[in-house]
Amino acid sequence: MKHACLAVNPRQRSKGALLVIPSLHTNHFTACDSAVLSDVSNLILTGVDILREAFQPDGIHTFCNSGVSAGQSEDHMHVQIIPRYADEPYSFVPSDEIPLLAEDKLAELVSVLLRRGPM
Fold this sequence. Notes:
It is a single chain. The chain has about 120 residues and is α+β, with helices and mostly antiparallel strands. Helices cover about 30% and strands about 20% of the residues. It is built from two helices and four strands, in the order ββαββα. It has helices at about 35-55, 105-115; strands spanning about 5-10, 20, 60-65, 80-85. The radius of gyration is 14 Å and the shape is globular.
C-alpha cells in the first residue's frame, strides 16, 4: 500500500494486536484524503483476515482514538485492530501503560502472522 502500512503493535493489548498507520502524519480521519482512507480501510480488512486465520479470535475490536483527550499518548492517527478472546479479560488502560513486548516475543508473533502471507 502506498498511503498506509500494517504493523504488529509492540504493546499487545491481546495476542496479535495490529496497527494500521498512515504513511504521512495526520491527527484524524478527517484530515485524510480518499487515497489514504482507501488504503487504511483495505489494510484493516487485511489485518482482520490475518488475525482470523492465525489466531481464530472470538471477536475483533477496531478503533481509532483521536487526540490525547480521547486516550492517545501523543496526537496522531492510527487504527488499532485488537483480537478478542472469550477467556481473556479486556483492559481499557491507556496504551502507554501496556508494556512493550520483548524483542524475541515480538519476532515470534511476527513469524506466526507472516505465515499467512505478506502484510
